[in-house]
Write a structure and sequence with these properties.
228 residues; alpha/beta; Rossmann fold; 39% helix
């Protein structure tokens, strides 16, 4: 994550972020998002290293490691890294303090790069994507988990942002089509998840089906590109 957060704000954000995933809705959202991520990982050989840019508190990195993918977790914020290092202790996850614009890897050296709800908080997403493509090997995978700009969740987060609530006051949301324009080619795989409202209550599976029937845009979209 890149933004003008002070250390105290980041400590609070890291704790609040983790607490939300302990709620029924948070746990359901995480499950749905990871299922979408699983779809874009299909075909990537187990044991291949994934560079996760903006790894935050390590929730996704820990999940990837348990799926058989070693992770290099790139996170510039020390407060986030501390949470992540505790969460991933004993797992094949290496933490690095670096920014999305200057990844400390040689050209064409990595098999996969992942942004998971990260580009929303990066000032220049196109620059970050170019840097990710730089470090990918030919045939390597660019993986993106996106908070869809047209979803009820993005509308809710924008409302929170107008109220000055962090981190949403510093977020910008995009459509999958915008990301395809930034990358320059259509994604080869696309998976969608989380159609319920951001204030949905249990039973959440039913709420999610209702949101899909109502025509809600998915809150989360996972995309995959392959470097030529």
């Amino acid at each position: 994550m890149i933004g003008s957060f002070n250390p105290f704000e980041l400590e609070e954000l890291a704790a609040e972020y983790d607490r939300w995933y302990e709620t029924p809705l948070g746990a359901f959202a995480e499950q749905q998002e990871l299922m979408a991520l699983q779809q874009v990982l299909e075909g990537l050989e187990k044991g291949k290293v994934i560079v996760e840019v903006g790894a935050g508190t390590g929730r996704v990195a820990a999940w990837l490691a348990r799926q058989g993918f070693p992770v290099i977790a790139v996170e510039p914020a020390a407060a986030m890294r501390r949470y992540g290092e505790r969460r991933t202790a004993g797992l094949p996850v290496q933490w690095i303090a670096a920014h999305a614009y200057m990844l400390p890897f040689p050209d064409s050296s990595q098999s996969a790069v992942l942004f998971f709800a990260t580009l929303e908080f990066i000032t220049e997403p196109q620059r970050a994507l170019r840097e990710a493509v730089r470090i990918l090997q030919p045939g390597g995978l660019l993986l993106l988990g996106l908070l869809h700009a047209h979803s009820p969740w993005a509308a809710f987060y924008c409302w929170l942002g107008r109220r000055g609530e962090l981190p949403w006051s510093q977020a910008r949301f995009y459509t999958p089509e915008e990301m395809e324009q930034y990358v320059g080619i259509p994604a080869e795989v696309r998976a969608e998840a989380l159609f319920c409202a951001p204030v949905a209550r249990e039973p959440l599976e039913e709420a999610d089906h209702a949101g899909r029937r109502a025509g809600n845009a998915p809150a989360f979209v996972a995309l995959r590109w392959r470097k030529l």
